[in-house]
Design brief:
five-stranded antiparallel β-sheet; Thiol Ester Dehydrase, Chain A; elongated; alpha+beta
Length: 153
């Protein structure tokens, strides 16, 4: 028996949908590993430097937070959707620092949708990503569009 998830198309999404994308507890090791490779600022790498920063203690890079959301989003939605890429994101905001041992939860809100005028086989979804910590504080948001194949006739 095939255990693969049903493929999802443009028509499977509705304006107003709120899609839980998962959760993740952030480890100290991954904060330092990501920062070492991609964002080597002292407050992402060193406890003493972080204590003297605006964050007060070791904090994940905002880019790390966005990457963690992306992984959840791929696992929950894109891995079984007829996705065709995206033109980018807008309004990216890091609202609260993310610290080691925080548990992050992601949601994706479908805000708008339309079929492409130039490619009627392609739908465009516009949505908002939101990541909260264990205190239900919003730590990151962004909005953006994605291309997704329309259901074949």
């Amino acid at each position: 028996m095939n255990q693969e998830k049903k493929r999802t198309y443009y028509e499977d999404f509705e304006i107003g949908d709120i899609i839980p994308v998962g959760y993740k507890t952030v480890s100290r090791e991954e904060v330092i590993r990501f920062a070492t490779e991609f964002d080597p600022q002292p407050f992402h790498l060193d406890d003493e430097a972080a204590a003297k920063s605006l964050f007060g203690k070791l904090s994940a890079s905002g880019w790390h937070t966005a990457s963690m959301f992306m992984r959840m989003y791929v696992d929950a939605i894109l891995s079984h959707a007829e996705t065709l890429g995206a033109p980018g994101v807008e309004k990216l905001q890091w609202l609260k620092p993310v610290h080691p041992e925080d548990t992050l939860t992601g949601k994706y809100y479908i805000l708008d949708k339309r079929v492409s005028k130039s490619r009627p086989d392609v739908g465009i979804l516009y949505g908002k990503a939101e990541m909260t910590n264990q205190k239900n504080e919003i730590v990151m948001t962004f909005e953006g569009s994605g291309f997704i194949r329309c259901m074949p006739e």
